[in-house]
Amino acid sequence: MKPCLKFLALSIPFFFAYSITKAQNTELEKTTGYVNFSLGETTLPHEKTQSLSLFGCNTNITIDSKLWNGPKGFSWNKANQVLSGIPVGHQIDPKTNKPYYVAKYYIASPPVFKAGSQNDPNTLYDIGIVTPDNFVFDGKKPVQMVYLDYNVLKPMFIKYIEVTFDSSFDGLGVDFVPFMVECDDFPWREANGIIGAQGASGIGSLTKDSTNVARLFLPYYYPYDTEGSAPTNSMEKYLDCEVTLLNDILFHYEVFFIVNGEKRTSINLKTLQNEKISFHAEYREELSAGCVESKQ
């Protein structure tokens, strides 16, 4: 009986050591995924290629980042343009050594300009639709298909609205603010049997720089103008656009709009276009929904 007890006593520490090692390895299991982009046409003249950005938990993938593994710009009217090596699964933040999980991503694709500049009020913008504009990777080596169409919405003029970053960002050492814009009255072009359609949404982001000033934009048009013409004396029609902060992918912090001393996670740009707007950041101990593994 004693030899058996001795063997059991030796086995228990080994079992726990093995279990801990296995658990640690499981926690660090991760892989990478792909996004397969297909681009259609644009309404306005365009650059040869289009830039894109992906935002996940504690993960920003832009064309000038180390995580970018794809073409240096995506070609119009071309299918199956692949971005690879996208982080998926359990990660460790190198600055804090804290764990997080990444699987949900948002996709931002900027407007296309007609001849002119961003500061020229006569510049027309072609705002496209990204389908889907957010997704969750699923599978051992997942692939997400995405389609960009810049030929379905009416071109817009844009009013820029300044937003300031307060000192809380410096205190936390963060600088990134992702958001979703939803305009329920964004007019579609009338084509292919679509008449009177309205509504569109998209993803954007702002990053704090040394000026502490950034700009949101509010689309508008002139109802009685021919599509694509220069503005006349008719009254501008501003779109009814709601901007919602995407706190679900921010790593241990959350961001708020401050308007008239009130904290908000979403604002209506049409209503507040003439108000003073600022960003405020706060530390968040609990990981947000987009930074943990789904239990489904």
From TrEMBL:
<protein>
    <submittedName>
        <fullName>Uncharacterized protein</fullName>
    </submittedName>
</protein>
<feature type="signal peptide">
    <location>
        <begin position="1"/>
        <end position="23"/>
    </location>
</feature>
<keyword id="KW-0732">Signal</keyword>
